[in-house]
Amino acid sequence: MSSSRGEKLSVVVERDLPFPPEKVWRALTQPLLLAQWLMKNDFAPQVGHRFNFRADWGVVDAEVLASEPDKTLSYTWNSMGLQSVVTWTLAATTGGTRVRMEQSGFPAEAPQYYQGAQQGWQQFFSALAQVLARTD
Questions:
Q1: Domain 13-133: what homologous superfamily?
Q2: C-alpha 48, offset from chain centre
Q3: Angle in degrees, CA 133, 124, 32, rounded to 5
Q4: Of these four, 40, 59, 113, 120, which has the most CB atoms within 10 Å of its CB?
Q5: CA distances from 73 to 26, 57, 94 (A)
Q6: Given the DSSP bridges, would you call strands 8-17 and 58-68 parallel, antiparallel or unpaired?
Q7: Can you list the positions of beta strands (E) in 33-117?
Q8: What is the distance between the alpha carbons of residues 104 and 112, in angstroms, rounded to a whole number?
Q9: What is residue 97's DSSP assignment?
Q10: What is the pLDDT of residues 3-48, one digit of tens each?
């Protein structure tokens, strides 16, 4: 499979979590909970809100693109020259919530971003599950 220059890749992680969508939504949108599994932030789930995530390695500049409580959340993710979009989709299941995260916009010619995100999101999802398990 040849990759043409300018082609964009997406990282997708899907997990079934044994918690209701409202609870998962809180962990995705409340700054204190978000900081426990992702990064320090000044997030608010309002379309047009500009915020950033802060970590030891640097800062992610972001803006909320879509926010539909308990269903969809989307924001830009601009860091270290990478401009991408993160979209969360929540769907209620009999046992909890199917959580889908897609980060789109990785340039095919810069695989380090893509590979880093694949590993990073797996770790973030594990941390998210732990935060949900110990949160009321």
A1: START domain (3.30.530.20)
A2: 17
A3: 65
A4: 113
A5: 11, 25, 22
A6: unpaired
A7: 40-41, 50-55, 58-68, 72-79, 82-93, 96-107
A8: 14
A9: E
A10: 556 789 999 999 999 999 999 999 999 999 999 999 999 999 999 9
CA–CA distance, 96 with 22 (Å, rounded to integer): 10
Strand arrangement, sheet containing 72-79: 8-17, 96-107, 82-93, 72-79, 58-68, 50-55, 40-41
Prediction pTM value:
0.93
Structure tokens given for 77: 């993710």
Q: Are 131 and 37 in contact (CB under 8 A)?
A: yes
Taking residue 27's Cβ as centre, other Cβ atoms within 10 Å add up to 22
b/e per residue, 38-62, with b = 16+ CB within 10 A?
Answer: bbebebebeeeeebbbeeeeeebeb
SS3 116: helix
